[in-house]
Write a structure and sequence with these properties.
Chain lengths: 374, 130
């Protein structure tokens, strides 16, 4: 018997309708039912496949394809049942059933282990609850964001306001400081006027001279305030123009035209606390040179301010006149001269040291810590 | 100071304007020490203008802040226009506002208090040179 005969017409077998004695009712019932089941079993997996195909996000979608194959195979067995009513193709029918059996047992076998996993998947209800929660917290975040922005705007406005107040206060402070400096300068001018008037009254030349040397000290104080008033921050100013104006004023005010002055200073910002003793020291030293160094009223004076290192500055006042003659003068007397006391005291106040050398004139060098500006 | 004498019909003298007596006195003595006469002192803008009209001084030393409504700049503008004196401002202030106001008058010089003899002499000599 050939394989084809085994498939379609094994010898000695009758079609299934023969078993039903070809009773028209039974044949029709079996054939009709099998046809309807077969068609339905083809339709259901097609619908299922279409659904799975469109819902690509489904977890375990491959199980659905197993169902599709298994149900279609079932449908095929029913259609072959119709065929075997009239044709004894039991070989084909058996093979189709065998395929169906394999698909169904595989599906059944794979389905059980899958159940706990499928159960663990969140349900649509859970998902929509979760979604609702998400939306709610999203709304809360949005609300918080809005509140935050409002607070930022409020805070920014407050900051701007206080900034404005600070600027105003600062302007007020500048105004006040300028007013104070103005008054200080006016008072110094009054003091200067008083000294000039008093000097006018005196006939004793040394007394007159002493009073007039006071004027240059008062002038030094006034000049500091003048520099402060002209500075941007009202607290510090550059030392060079100050030293130049100060020295020029003493030299040109106290001597003939034959004395030349050179002023050299490194760029250095100084405040009141440093500038006043510095200015008074320069006043004393330059005045000393003018008084003692040049009997013939001619010579040169150098005023120098330089850094000796990062933390120290040196003020040098040097002249090229009669140093040796001066050295022979008695330096120590019962009571030190006012200028000497002022110099010693101010050097100590600035925590500095002073060294005087007398060769080809007199050279005073005062080293003090560089001013620290707050 | 011989240069001053050759200038126009103005008198070789100085008018000192300051509302503080001691400052005015001090400035007068400083001017006189230079060998220049002081024709008058004034404490207000009105007094200053009147004194300038009367004495026709070559140079006016003018304070900025004065007693009364008007200040030194007002007085200076009037004197400059009606008399033609050279104006030297003597001020305690270096405020930009004050300096701007002084600038209105195209002053011959601006001195800041306290004023040394040298500064005053240089300013007056500068004025004399024109």
């Amino acid at each position: 018997m050939s394989f084809q005969d085994w498939l379609l017409n094994p010898s000695g077998l009758t079609p299934h309708g023969f078993c039903l004695s070809w009773a028209p009712g039974l044949v029709t019932l079996h054939a009709g039912s099998d046809a309807v089941i077969g068609i339905a079993y083809l339709s259901i997996p097609l619908a299922l496949a279409s659904f799975v195909n469109q819902r690509r996000d489904l977890q375990y979608g491959w199980v659905a394809y197993l169902f599709v194959a298994f149900i279609m195979a079932c449908g095929a067995t029913h259609l072959f049942s119709i065929l075997t009513l009239w044709v004894p193709a039991y070989g084909v029918e058996g093979l189709v059933k065998a395929v169906t059996a394999i698909l169904s047992i595989v599906t059944a076998g794979l389905l059980w282990p899958l159940i706990p996993k499928a159960v663990a998947l969140p349900s649509a209800a859970q998902l929509s609850a979760l979604n609702a929660q998400l939306r709610e917290s999203e709304a809360r975040v949005r609300q918080a964001n809005l509140e935050l922005e409002a607070r930022v705007a409020e805070r920014t406005a407050e900051l701007l306001q206080s900034n404005l107040q600070l600027t105003e206060a600062l302007a007020q402070r500048d105004l006040l400081l300028r007013e104070v400096y103005h008054r200080v300068k006016n008072n110094l001018q009054t003091v200067d006027g008083l000294i000039v008037m008093q000097a006018q009254q005196l006939s004793d030349p040394p007394a007159k001279k002493a009073l007039l040397s006071l004027r240059s000290r008062v002038f030094a104080l006034g000049l500091v305030h003048q520099q402060l008033m002209g500075s941007d921050n009202l607290k510090t100013f550059d030392v060079e123009p100050f030293l130049r104006e100060l020295s020029e004023n003493i030299v040109e005010g106290g001597a003939g035209e034959e004395i030349s002055l050179s002023v050299r200073a490194v760029p250095l910002k100084v405040g009141l606390d440093f500038a006043i003793p510095l200015g008074l020291l320069v006043t004393e030293l330059v005045t000393n040179s003018l008084k003692h160094a040049f009997p013939d009223r001619r010579g040169a004076i150098d005023v120098i301010l330089e850094h000796t290192d990062d933390a120290t500055v040196a003020l040098v006042v040097a002249d090229n006149g009669g140093g040796e003659e001066r050295a022979q003068r008695p330096v120590e007397s019962a009571r030190p001269a006012l200028g000497t006391s002022i110099i010693t005291g101010l050097v100590a106040q600035l925590k500095g040291t002073m060294e005087v050398r007398r060769e080809n004139g007199t050279r005073s060098e005062i080293r003090v810590p560089a001013p620290v500006l707050s | 100071m011989s240069e001053l004498a050759v200038m126009s019909d103005l008198q070789t003298c100085v008018l000192v304007v300051d509302d503080e007596f001691l400052i005015a006195q001090g400035l007068c003595l400083q001017v006189e020490d230079m060998g220049l006469p002081v024709c008058a002192t004034a404490a207000t803008a009105e007094e200053a203008v009147a004194a300038a009209l009367e004495h026709r001084p070559m140079v006016v030393l003018m304070d900025v802040r004065l007693q009364g409504e008007l200040d030194g700049v007002d007085a200076a503008l009037a004197i400059h226009e009606r008399v033609g004196s050279k104006l030297i401002f003597v001020t305690g202030s270096r405020e930009p506002a004050t300096l701007d106001r002084i600038g209105l008058d195209h002053p011959s010089a601006v001195l800041f208090k306290p004023v040394s003899d040298r500064q005053l002499r240089m300013a007056i000599e500068g004025v004399a040179r024109g």
